[in-house]
Amino acid sequence: MPVYEYTALDMKGKNATGIVDAESASMARQKLRAMQKFPVSINEVADLSKQTTKQTPSVASVFYRVKQTDIAAMTRQLATLIAAGFPLVSAIDALIPQTASKAFKPILAQIKDAIVEGNSFAGALANYPGTFTALYTNMVRAGESSGTLEIVLEQLADITEKQQALKTRIRSALAYPILMACVGILVLFLLITFIVPNITSIFEDMEQILPLPTIILIDISEFFKTFWWGMLLVLIAIWFGFRSFIKTTSGRQVVDNVKLKLPLFGPIFQKLAVARFARTLGSLLENSVTLLTSLEIVRNIAGNTQIALAIEHAADEVSKGQGLGTSLSASAAFPQLALQMIQVGEQSGELENLLLKIATMYENEVESRVLSVTSLLEPVMILVMGVVLGFVVLSICLPIFEMNQLIM
Questions:
Q1: Band of the pLDDT at 237, cuts 50, 70, 90?
Q2: DSSP string computed for 311-332
Q3: In a domain, 91, yes or no
Q4: Does residue 18 lie within any of the structural domains?
Q5: Do the strands 38-45 and 15-21 form a parallel or antiparallel pair, or are they unpaired?
Q6: Cα separation of 380 and 388, whole Å?
Q7: Helices 104-116 and 68-83 sit at what angle, rounded to 10 degrees?
Q8: Which residues contact residue 219 at a Cβ distance below 8 angstroms, ignoring those fewer than 6 apart?
Q9: Model pTM greater than 0.85?
Q10: What domain range is 11 assigned to?
């Protein structure tokens, strides 16, 4: 059913805005009048129900994307309303006007309509795979089946908020080194391309042999000055080629394999993927989702093809009666400590709790590792910048020193 965004006047003459679902604009006006609101303007909102995870991103999807923070806030509020005794439809209807995201409002309205038409909450969420993950939908389905929807929603809000908080901390730690690197590269490019040629042109009229560092600097400067546009085109081509390469199955596998083997960042990528696997699997098992179904969900959101392949192999072995820890140990993608804790959890019957502990442990390790790596990157970048600038200054000063010696 189409969704319309409206501006109207209430009985007291005050402005009121919101969204309403109706078959047509005229039906929307009639519905508003029945609510004692007098429409001033009505605009149809784009139908986002056709979005899928495999669609090619469009301009609309970039500017009207639902953020995970919006989903987490909605989930937390919905859990509170349901725990307070609100029916599900009434709770969603109460959240629609409070949602700040223009992309999220029509989705919530259409989910409410699907529930009114007789669909389950999980079934309505499944129509929006680009907004609600398989983890979210399956946990809601488990909550509906067990009658503990408000508890499941609270757990989903916790999971989403923890993942977003970890991403935010990692991005904050990396922001300064990345900014320093970008500014440094830009300054060096401008220096070598536009400033150095003006200085070194003085030496062209000199009838003496220039020092080797000066010759190298002049050659580099001339190359950058002449072919900077070609280098820019090459970098753009490499970027788009890389993006196309990682979209293929084989390309993604190669990139993920390389990421896990990087000297400093490999363990970070591995532990981050294992933490996501453990938290998701533990939350699903905690809400009575079967192990095989949980492994299938986790495989799709692992974030690394090597980890996903290990999980897929483990799921096959578990279906044959093998233990999860033993099945995962066949791959080198998982750390030994995580495998041992999983095996202990299976033996003690506390697999869910140990999985959540694994997630917390590796999330903390990732955060501390990122901080330590960034603390090393900063002095290294400063050292590299100092060496390059020292080379430029030395290359310019050497001919001047030689001229002074000749004059003396």
A1: very high
A2: HHHHHHHHHTT--HHHHHTTST
A3: no
A4: yes
A5: unpaired
A6: 12
A7: 40
A8: none
A9: no
A10: 3-45
Considering Cα of 330, then 334, then 340, then 344, what sign does the dihedral take? negative
- Maximal C-alpha separation, the chain: 99
Distance between CA atoms of residues 392 and 187, nearest Å: 13
Query: Mean pLDDT across the stretch 159-163?
Result: 79
Q: What is the pLDDT of residue 207?
A: 63
Tens digits of per-residue pLDDT, 102-158? Answer: 788 888 888 888 888 888 898 889 888 888 887 788 778 877 877 778 888 887 888
| Helix (H), strand (E) at residue 335 | none
Question: How far apart (Å, rounded) are the C-alpha atoms in residues 27 and 18?
Answer: 16
Question: Which H helix or E strand runs over 229?
Answer: helix 212-246
Residue 21 confidence (pLDDT): 67
Q: Tell me, yes or no, whether 41 lies in a domain.
A: yes
Cβ neighbours, 10 Å, residue 388: 15
Q: How far apart are CA 126 and CA 138, in angstroms?
A: 9
3-state secondary structure of 65: coil
Instruction: Indicate whether 15 belongs to any domain.
Output: yes
Task: Write the CB contacts of 67 (distance below 8 Å, at least 6 apart in sequence).
Answer: 101
Q: The tokens of 135 are what?
A: 């983890």
For the record, the structure tokens of 24 come out as 């047509």
Provide mean pLDDT across the span 219-235.
85
State how many domains the chain has.
Answer: 1
Ramachandran sector of residue 345 (left: φ over 0; alpha: ψ -120 to 50; beta: rest): alpha
Alpha carbons 281 and 342: distance in angstroms, whole number: 11
pLDDT of residue 234: 92
Identify which of 115, 104, 35 has the alpha carbon closest to the alpha carbon of residue 70: 104
Closest CA to 287 of 378, 356, 231: 356
Amino acid at 313: H
Q: What angle, 0 to 180 degrees and rounded to 10, lies between the N-to-C axes of helices 336-348 and 351-407? A: 170
Taking CA atoms, 382 is separated from 352, 368, 386, 389, in Å, by 45, 22, 6, 10
- 């003690």: which residue's tokens? 348
